Amino acid sequence: MSQVRKGPLRGPFFLAGAILGKLSGIALSLGAQTALAQQLYDVVLDNGDDVLNIATLSVTALDEDDGYTLNFSEALFGDYFLSMRPFRCITHSDKMLCHLPYPYENRRRLGRDALTDLEYDLLFIARSPTEYGIDPWNGRYFHLRWEGETIHGQLHETDLDILAAPPESGNLRPLADVDMVPMERSDGQWVPDLRILPRQP
Fold it and tell me: What's the whole-model pTM score?
């Protein structure tokens, strides 16, 4: 993004933060369109040099209301108290990505043509380890797409401050594509791709 704005998180954002879920054991539901089989999937960040296994997606295919759990890696995520709220963050070199559990209504369905709910459960905020507090202006959003049986995600910049207030009733997509900018790898940036791939037996 060409604009630069820093500042503390505003009050409504932290009211929403009070209902943020824990990283481990997030219970989600799976729609009927999904082609996923009963097995484990690894969720990894890959920047071409380093691969970080950040979570495990456990899928159970029983009926059309299948469920899955998303368990983030305790070894990779550290606990931080930033701008008066707890966050769990990955540190990579001099960069950090802090997970932001989506605090509003989410149907949490997953299918061949339905990946947005999962995208909303993989929101992050970027910061420097030396930075004071945390600013949702530095939001990170992975646009997901299927490639065979693997899900790939491209990292985008976006302002997550829009989540400071609840969306209107029935609006399950408050984050607009027009406000997202694809990130390209360059010096001084950590721009990993996200992959969700079946774990090999």
Answer: 0.79
* Both tokens assigned to 63: 């009926």
- 33 closest CA partner among 106, 105, 115: 115
Three-class secondary structure assignment of 117-159 = HHHHCCCEEEECCCCCCCCHHHEEEEEEEEECCEEEEEEEEEC
The dihedral sign for the CA sequence 84, 124, 36, 110: positive
> Do residues 142 and 156 make contact, with C-beta atoms less than 8 angstroms apart?
yes
- Among residues 6, 68, 3, which one has the least CA distance to residue 34? 68
Q: How far apart (Å, rounded) are the C-alpha atoms in residues 151 and 161?
A: 27
Question: pLDDT (tens digit, 9 = 90+) per residue, 54-72?
Answer: 999 877 653 334 456 788 9
Cα-based angle 19, 21, 27 (whole degrees, multiple of 5) = 130
Please give the sequence-ordered ranges of beta strands (E in DSSP) within 23-182, or none if there are none. Answer: 26-29, 39-46, 51-60, 67-72, 77-82, 85-92, 95-99, 124-127, 139-147, 150-158, 181-182
CA distances in angstroms from 187 to 52, 92, 174, listed in the order given: 20, 14, 32
150 has which bridge partners?
A: 147
Answer whether 113's CB lies under 8 Å from 42's CB.
no
Q: pLDDT tens-digit profile of 90-133?
A: 988 788 999 999 999 887 777 778 788 889 999 999 998 888 88
